[in-house]
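Record type: monomer structure entry
Structure origin: computed from sequence
Chain ID: A
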Amino acid sequence: MKRLFLICLLAALLTLCGCGSNQTEEHALERLEAYAQAIDYSYKEPGKIYAFLCQDFRDQMDEEAFCEAFAKERTYPYLTPLYISKPEITLSEDGLSGTAVYLRAARLVGMTYEVSFVYENGDYYIQDWEEFLDGSYLEKFDNMIYSLDWYYSEDVHKN
């Protein structure tokens, strides 16, 4: 009985002093890698992606609306695939925010995908998909400067 009490007391102390906190660079990297996994492999279940989004975003758009917008999103997988990997993170000194730059699988060498993230509600959450909030994602291909003929032209892509 004493042993159980001591274990509970130790757990409470660790929680209070923050020693058991997951507010670390290693945990941030784990969360950002899990976010990439959700985008890369669970894109048919956008609710899994939504679960990683920050509270500010979720306050403005519920999961159902996000899933509907995600289904309409024309970027993935057509012109610019959103298969992302290997996040390189920059974490603020206090560990409460940062940025991640992912490598992006694409036809263009060096293409990256950058997101911000914040520590809130005891974990790291991603600031992404802001264009869903104002609907601008539906307009991104309206003023394209090139056509499919341009894309397939051998003259344009010679080094």
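Annotation 1: The longest helix spans residues 25-41.
Annotation 2: The chain is about 45% helix and 20% strand.
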